[in-house]
Specification:
This protein has about 270 residues and is mostly helical. The protein is built from 11 helices and no strands.
């Protein structure tokens, strides 16, 4: 059994999961609903609409990705299905690759459909100024979602304790989505003896540290394609080249790859 067989099985199993379909129905409702409701919340222009939609995706998509991946390996391990799968000619590496590919398809196919529908509604209601670059928004959103999916699958490989997996997924969401800016500010204040001026005039390395938050990298990619009120600190005069849009892509790739590598290192030689 190759990784492609594992991926097909994951896609097939997801198609029968009511919970997963419910999550994507919620994402679709929020995205398309925001497209209709933006006129009550902001300026009636496509960039303003996209800026607001980015905020919705930044908060909701990580939840869907984490729920999709955080028990992808551990549940099969606890139930014995993993032992059965590995009794066939299937290596642990193939299992991990197949799980990542299958869950990526399950995550991105309905997500991109939902966001495309929201974009069409937004273009009809708010004009097409900037809409030609909407595929860049879809690309950035895909990278952002896969970063959390990779983190979740890596977490699922690292331990069999449900409590720690759940705490890890919840804590990872809170840190990466809600608290990264706060943690960054606290660290900067501590290193500079609580001189608050450092928060408005950060050294170059601190900008890179800030960009390492996946939400920050996502916002940086959106700012690279659209004139939106987001991530202005990375495009001001005199900022270093290593906080440009390509750095945000590299950071999101690291958020995907590093947890997978750490989880696989623990999973590779563990007893089943």
């Amino acid at each position: 059994m190759s990784w492609t067989d594992v991926a097909r099985k994951d896609v097939s199993d997801a198609g029968r999961s009511k919970t997963i379909w419910l999550l994507f129905a919620l994402l679709t409702a929020l995205s398309v609903g925001y497209a209709f409701g933006h006129s009550y919340l902001g300026a009636a222009s496509f960039p303003a609409f996209l800026n607001g939609l980015t905020g919705v995706v930044a908060a909701v998509l990580p939840i869907v990705a984490l729920l999709l991946g955080y028990k992808s390996i551990s549940d099969d391990r606890d139930s014995g299905r993993l032992f059965l799968a590995l009794s066939f000619p299937c290596s642990r590496r193939d299992l991990v690759v197949g799980t990542l590919v299958g869950r990526t398809v399950v995550l991105l196919a309905p997500t991109l459909v939902a966001l495309t529908a929201a974009g069409i509604v937004g273009a009809v209601r708010y004009g097409t100024d900037g809409a030609a670059l909407y595929p860049w928004f879809l690309f950035a959103s895909a990278l952002y979602g896969v970063a959390f999916l990779g983190t979740a699958i890596g977490l699922s490989m690292s331990t069999t304790a449900d409590r720690w997996i759940t705490f890890g997924a919840f804590g990872g969401y809170m840190l990466a989505v809600n608290l990264w800016g706060t943690v960054h500010s606290v660290v900067m204040l501590f290193l500079h003896r609580f001189q608050f001026a450092v928060l408005s005039d950060m050294p170059d390395w601190a900008l890179l540290f800030r960009l390492f938050g996946p939400g920050e990298s996502y916002g940086r990619l959106i700012r690279a394609g659209f004139d939106v009120d987001r991530s202005a600190r990375y495009v001001a005069d005199g900022v270093p080249v290593y906080v440009d849009w390509w750095a945000a892509i590299a950071i999101l790739a690291l958020w995907t790859a590093v947890p997978l590598a750490v989880g696989y290192y623990r999973f590779r030689d563990d007893d089943l």
